[in-house]
Amino acid sequence: MAELLTVARPYAKAAFEYARDHEALDSWSQALSFLSVAVADDVVRHRLSSPKLDSEQKCRCLSS
C-alpha cells in the first residue's frame, strides 16, 4: 500500500496544482468525489478490471 501512495503522490500534487492554477478546485473536487464513489461500486470495479477494455474505453466509461 505504501508503494501505491508513493507512486500516486506526485500525480495528486500535479493535479491539485493544475486545478489551483486554473481556479478549478471545486470542479476537480466534485469529479474526484464522483470517481471515488464510482470505483467503490462492485459493478463498476468489475467492468474497469476487464482486460477487454483499453484505457481509453475505461475513461469513457467513467466520464459518460
UniProtKB/TrEMBL annotation:
Organism lineage string: Bacteria, Pseudomonadati, Pseudomonadota, Gammaproteobacteria, Oceanospirillales
Keywords, ordered alphabetically: ATP synthesis, CF(1), Hydrogen ion transport, Ion transport, Membrane, Transport
InterPro entries linked to this entry: ATP_synth_OSCP/delta_N_sf (IPR026015), ATPase_OSCP/dsu (IPR000711)
Location(s) in or outside the cell: Membrane
Signal peptide boundaries: none
Top-level taxon of origin: Bacteria
Name of the protein in its database record: ATP synthase subunit 5, mitochondrial
Main location: membrane
Coiled coil: none
